[in-house]
Design goal:
This protein is of the alpha+beta class and 153 residues long. The chain has 4 helices and 6 strands; from the N terminus they run E-E-H-E-H-E-E-H-H-E. The protein has a domain of 101 residues: 2-Layer Sandwich (Alpha-Beta Plaits).
Length: 153
């Protein structure tokens, strides 16, 4: 039997042999696709109106590394485990483009959850009580810092 170079290197037989297994696999895959395999999955109800919480933070330069370490290595890994969690971000202010903001507020914490009820459940949990203080203690203002809750509309 003679062999000729295949399209990916190797070789393939040239003498009239048919690759029945490959043909059958392709036919099976095409059949499954034509039936719409995804239609057998349970549909998920899309919810696009989440809540977002913003915390304006004043973190001294000497404590930035500590705060970012607590946020990325402790807070985030715990938050992602909770029902309703969508995302959390820590933003560092670059500049003020328009208007005025308190000079000391150099970080913004953003938390997005499916609902306020699920966020309340998360903040009442023992894991939250353990991880949020690690971030909060790095702020100059630890009691009356701005926390604003928004509904997506």
């Amino acid at each position: 039997m003679q062999h000729t170079p295949g399209p990916l290197g190797g070789s393939r037989p040239t003498g009239g042999h048919v690759n029945r297994r490959g043909i059958l696999r392709s036919a099976f895959a095409a059949t499954i696709a034509s039936f719409g395999f995804g239609r057998f999955a349970t549909p998920v109800r899309a919810q696009t109106r989440h809540i977002r919480l913003y915390v304006e933070m004043d973190v001294p330069a000497a404590r930035e590394r500590e705060m970012l370490d607590a946020f990325h290595n402790t807070f985030v890994p715990e938050a992602v485990k909770h029902d309703g969690y969508i995302r959390v971000k820590m933003l560092k202010r670059r500049s003020v483009v328009q208007g005025t903001v308190p000079e000391a507020h150099n970080y913004r914490f953003e938390l997005e959850f499916e609902s306020e009820e699920l966020r309340q459940k998360w903040i009442a949990s023992a894991p939250h009580q353990r991880v949020w203080p690690l971030v909060e203690r790095t702020m100059k203002t630890q009691k009356d810092y701005p926390v604003v809750l928004y509904d997506e509309v």
